[in-house]
């Protein structure tokens, strides 16, 4: 179901009152989620109440086995679909969905490569031990420092997004006498059926080259010693159901691919990701096996029509790997029934998190589900809206859901399908610390990303004296940069320095801060 604005109808047309207000829709929750004999939600075999006692709330919970299972399923699906056409497929995990060193290890152990979009994401992948040759580097505005680092460590491919970036990279490889594989990002012009902000292949947006401009860019790449053009790349959007958009985009790319073959072999066609998942019981996402077969068949058919060999394929699922594996736990703070006229009402359920840990409803009107996690209830279901603690009327966690009428302060509430783009988009709005991320597996739980504290937030405030926060080691005022000093001067240390003299992008923040202590 495409993202939609927050509902004004009561109830929204897609929302169905559940037969069992305690039930867990299988397509929405991690595959191992269930309720114990006391009715408490379990994820990875661990009761939600135990997780709250150990780690507090809000809390991101990620089922490790669920992530691994989705990674294996995606790899098997795309490899199998490609093999039927006599070619190979590489599957990258799109790190922007959710990245930590543990998640990188899980997906790489299951055979996936890794797709990163910034120097920070590259640093995480490298710190996790990912093979640089199996890393793809995206981004619409990669800095010279980021490109320098990518070439230095030997990333497998860099996706070129603009002519300026192309010339930046050309200067780097020529100076280093290096050879770098590159792909060219192309806008196929296919308008994905998704939220406007999630559609990335229409003409009026920031990513890539038009079909008309791509040949000249490829010609320029082929002129540059040190750059090896290996293929085209296209990503039509995110949270897409069905295969029609992917098939049409593939057809347009194959036409361009065929024309470019006159200048030399092109071994790869990367068709991106964007495969949707279920956030509510009303969602009906296309199985990954069907997507893989449909896209591979479309490419094979278009190549056959043109009498050209089919290239190897590449794909970049992120949400489809990690989204369903995540559950966010909140504690209910207040409830409030609001009369809406004509006898209708909505129960507002306020929790101890909000848009700082899940920005998607505010950004895209994204829809989610919710269930009481600490108990079961026989109370009748009422129309509810789960909201956060932030000073925004748009601070909505779950726009529309049926919840038991007796939901009360202290209840534990679980929101499923939060594994993708929740932690990644989290913030400190209203100075709320970001929650920890806990991985569960086989009845055990461990922190994989430490949660923030108020002390963490205050420690970054350069206006505080060393003695103002007990236990926080901060630089004295004379050692800090002047707030009036131009950014250009603060950046001067790295200008003109060779890569070995610059701070490594993979160097821990604690070490980078040590100079000022």
UniProtKB/TrEMBL annotation:
Reported cofactor(s): pyridoxal 5'-phosphate
Lineage: Bacteria, Bacillati, Actinomycetota, Actinomycetes, Micrococcales
Coiled-coil residue spans: none
Name of the protein in its database record: Diaminopimelate decarboxylase
Oligomer and partners: Homodimer.
One Pfam family named in its UniProt record: Orn_Arg_deC_N
Organism: Microbacterium deminutum
Biased composition (Basic and acidic residues): 500-517
SUPFAM superfamilies named in the record: Alanine racemase C-terminal domain-like, PLP-binding barrel
Keyword vocabulary terms for this entry: Amino-acid biosynthesis, Decarboxylase, Lyase, Lysine biosynthesis, Pyridoxal phosphate
